Amino acid sequence: GCFGDGKEKNLMLFDGVTGARTGTIDLGGLQGDHPDWSADGKRIVFTDVGEFNTDQRSYKGAIAVVEQMGAGWSAPKNVIPRAGGKNHYYPAISPTNAFFVFNMSTCKSGDKGADCDFDMDPTAKIFAKFFDSDAPPVELANANGPGVADNGKVELTNSFPKW
């Protein structure tokens, strides 16, 4: 994880029993946030914060991954690039380790603003992307679609996917 003050940019590793910090994964200047570790222990996917505001409300996010290499970790690899007018965040790796889901918001008020800051974004939708494919992300249309009680509303603030 990372601290919510924006000072720690790297991924920190902790002992799950004692809570003691056991290491750091250097992100080479990127700012990591909301990491998710694969079930097989070989990948960590995270939000690459473009512009820090708070731990939960930042802007211009991309999605990156580090992969286990022997006793260490690879350099970060961008898997969902930063894009103007969009914010990508909250990745979660599937139980099969083959793909991940994440949120994307469309920024109606520009690249920064309450409608595009990871938190309660009205346009937030969930997408899926395979790690080992150049295919574009796929919108999870059924998960993002309105239900009976939504009365046809399509901006549902669909956020924080987990398995």
Q: Summed up, what is this model?
A:
This protein is 2% helix and 36% strand. It has 163 residues and is mainly β. The mean pLDDT is 88.
Please tell me about this protein's structure:
- The chain has 163 residues and is mainly β.
- It has one helix spanning 141-144, and strands at residues 11-14, 21-25, 32-37, 43-48, 62-69, 72-73, 77-80, 86-93, 99-106, 125-130, 138-139.
- Strands 3, 4, 5, 6 and 7 form a five-stranded antiparallel β-sheet that branches. Strands 8-9-10-11 form a four-stranded antiparallel β-sheet.
- Strand 10 (125-130) and strand 11 (138-139) form a beta hairpin.
For the sheet with most strands, the description reads: 5 strands, antiparallel
Q: Output the radius of gyration.
A: 16 Å
Strand percentage: 35-45%
Sketch the topology as an H/E string, one letter per element.
EEEEEEEEEEEH
Report the mean per-residue pLDDT as an integer.
88
* Overall outline: globular
Individual helix count: 1
Helix content: under 10%
Distance from N terminus to C terminus (CA atoms, Å) equals 18 Å
Number of strands: 11
Uncertain residue segments: none
- Based on helices, strands and strand pairing, what is the structural class? mainly beta
